[in-house]
Amino acid sequence: MSDSQANMQSETQSLEHYWMPFTANRQFKSKPRMLAEAQGMYYKDTTGRSVLDGTAGLWCCNAGHGRKEISQAVSKQIHKLDFAPSFQMGHPIAFELAERLAQISPDGLNKVFFTNSGSESVDSALKIAINYHRSNGEATRTRFIGRELGYHGVGFGGISVGGIGGNRKTFSQQLLPGVDHLPHTLDMQNNAFSRGMPKTGAEKADVLEQLVALHGAENIAAVIVEPMSGSAGVILPPEGYLQRLREITKKHGILLIFDEVITGFGRVGDAFASQRWGVTPDMITTAKALNNGAIPMGAVLIDDAIYDASMQGPDGIELFHGYTYSGHPVAAAAAIATLDIYQNEQLFERSRELEGYFEEAVHSLKGLPNIIDIRNIGLVGGIQFSPSEEGVGKRGFGIFEHCFANGTLVRATADIIAISPPLIIDKQQIDQIVNTLGDAIRAVG
Question: Per residue in 240-265, pLDDT tens?
Fold first, then answer.
């Protein structure tokens, strides 16, 4: 299909049948923003206009777009084996991928349970936690502890342990019982414009001791947090905070789950944030950049002790949980090709190497109208604005729209703009994103 034919099709195509996720559908369909192609660091919209990707799609495409290594691996695999059942059957490529993931995971996390998304990875981890404690004869450990402003997907388990009000309120009467929340770590009064991890706030982890005293350690299965809260607006943990959570959970026999659906695969300058910050949890949930967003896929990385405990019972199915597409052969082929790219091009290291330049660039925006905080780590940054008189989110969305109209894709969450480009980005492209964002901030006011 030629570009002109594609444009004609997009102009006549009905938008009415697709109920879009996390989207103001009426607003979008009155003024659609349609992406048609992608290559390297750039999208093209349906008019053929280039748009610099400042968000790695949706935190997914860490290796950039249009990678032939991935598309060729997908094509080869779909011709060889398009699907195989994963219940009581197996296929070699799922086992190969699990081994590859174990090689780059934190020490001890050598078992892998495959899912199809971050949401499924979270719900799987919660189930695995309960199954582990039952296997150990501690069936009363069923309570979960999440955190305010946490995002853990959209399954009922994920929104129960999550802490974003808008995701919970419609479904509040159907959420899991026995869930409590730690306070969030965002403290703009003391930590605004921090570069990297904030210096103060580690004591907020001590609230976990209060929750243990309230509910009883014998009733708590797991604590789940994002090492860095991405969807809530790039909220970083204070120095020592994650270490303190690890100390408390170990003390009380509580599992610690890190949701690394966003931070995994190089975003913060290491394969996983747990490695960057020197804290090893009992499980890590992943998805998104696992296979560069090419095909839906997720995975839970699991400590050997959890798996081993589940293997001690009578012969038979050890965990009554799984998905039709767990370890899908084509998705697994895309993931292996993606891991090869990360290794061959040293993209995890590249994220750390560019961190200083990226940090200087995003913090150069300080002082522009209505900016009240800037946060960064690795190749991710968050710029927070005071709300406009028109209401919360209006300023952030206006800046997002202005950037897109001027050839750069950023992400708006209320009045926070998040930047998380593919790890293949160069310094000139960092400058382009920041300059376009600066112009948008001045224009929107």
Answer: 999 999 999 999 999 999 999 999 99
Can you read off the two tokens belonging to residue 404? 């897109």
pLDDT of 395-420, one tens digit each?
A: 999 999 999 999 999 999 999 999 99
Q: Tell me which amino acid residue 432 is.
A: Q
Tell me: pLDDT of 215 over 50: yes
Q: Write down the pTM of the prediction.
A: 0.96
Check if the beta carbon of residue 272 is closer than 8 Å to that of residue 51. Answer: no
- Strand partners for 383: 374, 417
Candidates 1.10.10.10, 3.20.20.80, 3.30.420.40, 3.90.1150.10; correct CATH number of 3-63+346-444?
3.90.1150.10
State which fold the 70-344 domain adopts.
Aspartate Aminotransferase; domain 2 (3.40.640)
| Distances 434 to 126, 364, 371, 427 between C-alpha atoms, Å | 39, 9, 14, 11
**DSSP single-letter state for residue 276:** H
The number of residues making up the chain comes to 445
For residue 158, what are the CA distances in angstroms to 147, 239, 328, 397? 11, 26, 23, 26
pLDDT (average), residues 146-170: 96
